[in-house]
Design brief:
The complex is a heterodimer of chains A (about 160) and B (about 650). Chain A is an all-alpha fold. Chain A has 9 helices and no strands. Chain A has a domain of about 90 residues: Cytochrome c-like domain (Cytochrome Bc1 Complex, Chain D, domain 2), CATH 1.10.760.10. In chain B, a hairpin with a 4-residue loop joins strand 22 and strand 23. The termini of chain B are far apart. The chains are: A mainly alpha (about 160), B mainly beta (about 650).
Chain lengths: ~160, ~650
């Protein structure tokens, strides 16, 4: 009796084999659906200031020359989707410097793909506006000039 | 109990057998997927990973170039070259139409055979790809930073530009020769005068500067068929070799009449000597109308008519051309990586002849000539031959090299690749291919430094290799591992058009140079816009110019009124995107041309002739965002002579 093979156990093995099949092992190795960008994986600083290359921004009094350069870039690369005082393709921007930190704004310009994919605010905006904010291949200097231009904007009070 | 025991034993045995059978069948299934003789894993490029090589395959009668990845056989791109390509507007848009101009006018098609990568020091360098148009003789330059055709030169005094374009080792020249001899200059005469009057030409075309492609000089040769070519390398740099057949000079039923002679020729051309003769002024000024097309800095193609070449006659320039007798109707002429051996693929011959470059120089010095044709010495066969490969298959055509002393020759009739050793001429391996192989390609296999890992057989017949698709089947290519002593078949993959020759290059020599978009600041198209603020519509008589911008996901303007029946509306669409892989398309009802596909930062123009009054939509054809379906607009067409004011806007 001791040496007798255990039929139910063997049958169970067979059934298990049938269920798992040939590809069972590889299934377990597959990554679960993308969980990157889960808010818990971001630092408090990233939540506040966005994900991207803008790690330090020094703001002084408005630099008119920088703002003028920013306006030219805005006209060429941003105005097709952003108006100052109303929603267009994207959100209105006259008050953006009041709503978001300077670094957040620059990171949104410089790293929109990751911001939309991983940052809770970016994901929320994408869900609201549906069109992804495109990368316009701006340099950090471009983004800084754009920020200065946005700082000159005054929201229209209705 | 005994009975019970027996039942138990049977049950146990049954279960065990079932488990074993299942386990075995699983093993077999998995072997088929990933192990086997390991063929599958050798061509497996995991999702998200890249191939090791780019393969550039000619499109043959498609007139284009197909880019594939090796070892996977993945299709990467179809580059529009000599044929209109409605998929992206090549040859349809106002910016690209001029690329297909010739001295015969606009031609929407050709037959492309031989891609050739630019070289530095005899090694592919990844700057450009050149390819011939066989029918209306032309050579195109493709920029490998954009994978776009940027220059096309027509070749005058030629017919059947088949032995073309083969490059010299520092991209000094592309060589090109006539497959069809014709009266040169062209004139009205009886075809019966072929033998006396018809001629062939070889052209040397400057290739090393973008925009400066031109015929440097041509050589007038006897009226044979000049079939394929390769330039010398290393010690034979400065020479180029051309296979010839129809030395019988037949002009009808060539199938029979051009196969009479036991030996035809490989023409050895000393182009450095040609340069000397050119400098000495012995070339004769010759006629010939041709057209040069170039994409300008504003990315708009322009055509320039050119006239006349300098023709060198061998009798005026001693030492320019020699004929090497070669059995029998040779097709391929392939120079090994050392530059010493010149292999002639005598497609009707029983042996594969290999000439020696050093013996050829000696024979020239010794004047070991067996005869002379039109001032061209015919060298003594025994004085130039290095060896003959016996049993090299039936119908040998083309040979490439692995850089380890081995040569690989295609045999069309016996459908096989034959591997043999340079120097000993001994056949060491053969592998069947399916079916009727023409060219073969080893990445770098016609250069001084072949990569020597893979071989691609380009087969002329497909038959039963794939699921049937009606009478026409995709031509089959096959990937073979050549790293071991024995060749190993790895993969079948279908191709586009009919690949003749192909070229391969290590991926990193190209991938790191790729252009991802065109900076909008540098857009110098006269009808381009640099921002949405510049979008507008201007009328000039019956010509209406729409300066339109596109960005995810709207056009500006997207409402246009004041267009009239009979107008000629120029939609100049600028893609304001500055990101990779975000083209926008443009199409409008009733446009008698293709769509536009506009790369980021680029401007493309479609001309629309509204024929009926009404309100007509236009839209983006390239799915660009979640709101792509919303990327559309309207143009109002009023009757002829109507006073509807010209208005336009977006979002108003």
């Amino acid at each position: 009796m001791r040496n007798r093979p255990h039929i139910p156990a063997l049958t169970a093995t067979l059934v298990l084999f049938l269920i798992v099949g040939c590809g069972g092992a590889s299934d377990s190795e597959q990554a679960t659906p993308d969980q990157a960008g889960d808010q818990s994986s971001l630092t408090a600083d990233q939540i506040e200031n966005g994900i991207g290359p803008a790690v330090e921004v020094n703001l002084g009094p408005i630099d008119e020359a920088m703002a003028a350069k920013g306006e030219a870039i805005f006209t060429s690369k941003c105005a097709a989707c952003h108006k100052m005082d109303k929603r267009y393709v994207g959100p209105p921007l006259a008050d953006v410097t009041k709503r978001r930190s300077a670094r957040f704004i620059m990171n949104m310009m410089l790293n929109p793909d990751q911001m939309i994919r991983e940052h809770p605010t970016g994901k929320e905006m994408f869900a609201t506006y549906m069109t992804p904010m495109p990368s316009q291949n701006l340099t950090e200097e471009d983004a800084r000039h754009l920020l200065e231009y946005l700082r000159t904007q005054v929201p229209v009070v209705e | 109990m005994k009975r019970n025991n027996r039942n138990t034993v049977i049950a146990v045995a049954g279960v065990l057998v079932a488990v074993i059978v299942l386990a075995t069948s699983c093993q077999q299934a998995q072997r088929g997927v990933i192990s086997g003789s390991d063929a599958a894993s050798k061509v497996y490029v995991p999702p998200g990973s890249y191939d090791d090589y780019y393969a550039f395959m000619s499109g043959g009668y498609s007139g284009q170039v197909t880019v594939m990845g090796l070892p996977s056989g993945r299709l990467l791109k179809n580059i529009a070259v000599f044929s209109q390509h409605a998929e992206n507007g090549w040859g349809y848009s106002e910016e690209t139409k001029a690329m297909l101009n010739t001295s015969y006018g606009f031609i929407p098609w050709d037959d492309s055979h031989h891609p050739q990568l630019s070289q530095t020091d005899g090694v592919p360098d990844g700057r450009w790809l050149f390819i011939n148009a066989n029918n209306t003789p032309r050579i195109a330059r493709i920029d490998l930073a954009t994978f776009e055709t940027e220059e096309i030169l027509e070749i005058p005094n030629s017919a059947g530009n088949h032995a073309s374009p083969f490059i010299t080792e520092n991209s000094e020249y592309l060589v090109a020769a006539t497959r069809f001899s014709v009266p040169i200059p062209q004139r009205d005469m009886s075809i019966d005068e072929f033998k006396e009057q018809f001629k062939g030409t070889i052209s040397f075309i400057k290739a090393d500067v973008v925009g400066d492609m031109d015929v440097e000089f041509q050589i007038m040769l006897p009226g044979y068929d000049y079939d394929v070519s390769h330039a010398g390398k290393g010690p034979s740099h400065g020479w180029a070799f051309f296979s010839t057949y129809n030395t019988e000079q037949a002009h009808t039923l060539k199938e029979v009449n051009a196969s009479q002679n036991d030996k035809d020729f490989i023409a050895a051309v000393n182009w450095r000597r040609g340069e000397e003769c050119l400098a000495e002024g012995v070339g004769r000024q010759f006629g010939g109308e041709y057209v040069h097309n170039i994409v300008g800095e504003n990315r708009i193609a322009v055509s320039h008519a050119r006239s006349g070449t300098t023709m060198i006659y061998p009798e005026d320039c001693d030492g320019l051309v020699y004929f090497l007798p070669t059995p029998k109707s040779p097709h391929g002429v392939d120079v090994d990586p050392t530059g010493e051996y010149i292999v002639g693929g005598g497609k009707l011959a029983t042996v594969l002849p290999v000439h020696s470059f050093s013996k050829m120089l000696q024979a020239i010095e010794d004047e070991a000539f067996e005869s002379e044709v039109d001032g061209i010495p015919v060298l003594d066969y025994d004085a130039v031959i290095a060896g003959e490969v016996a049993n090299a298959g039936l119908g040998p055509l083309h040979t490439e090299f692995d850089g380890k002393g081995n040569a690989y020759t295609t045999a069309f009739l016996s459908s096989e690749i034959v591997k043999w050793k340079l120097g000993t001429w001994e056949v060491v391996d053969r592998i069947p291919v399916y079916y009727s192989v023409g060219h073969l390609m080893i990445p770098g296999g016609d250069s001084r430094e072949p990569w020597g890992q893979y071989l691609v057989a380009m087969n002329k017949m497909t038959k039963d290799r794939y699921l049937p698709t009606g009478p026409e089947l995709a031509h089959s290519a096959q990937l073979i591992d050549i790293t071991g002593e024995k060749m190993e078949m790895l993969l079948d993959f279908p191709t586009m058009g009919e690949p003749h020759y192909a070229q391969g290059i290590a991926a990193d020599l190209i991938a790191s140079n790729e252009v991802r978009m065109f900076p909008i600041e540098e857009n110098s198209h006269p009808y381009g816009v640099k921002s949405e603020a510049e979008a507008r519509v201007e009328r000039d008589g019956n010509d209406v110019h729409v300066y339109m911008s596109s960005i995810r996901s709207h056009f500006a303007p997207d409402n246009i009124e004041g267009i009239r029946v009979g107008d000629k509306v120029h939609f100049h669409v600028t893609n304001l995107e500055q990101d990779w892989d975000v083209p926008h398309g443009f199409a409008v009802i009733g446009a008698r041309t293709s769509e536009l596909l506009i790369m980021p930062g680029d401007t493309r123009t479609l001309i629309w002739n509204p024929q009926r009054e009404g309100v007509y939509p236009f839209y983006c054809t390239d799915f660009c965002s979640a709101l792509h379906q919303e990327m559309q607009g309207y143009v109002r067409v009023s009757p002829r002579g109507s006073n509807t004011p010209l208005t336009f806007g977006t979002g108003s």
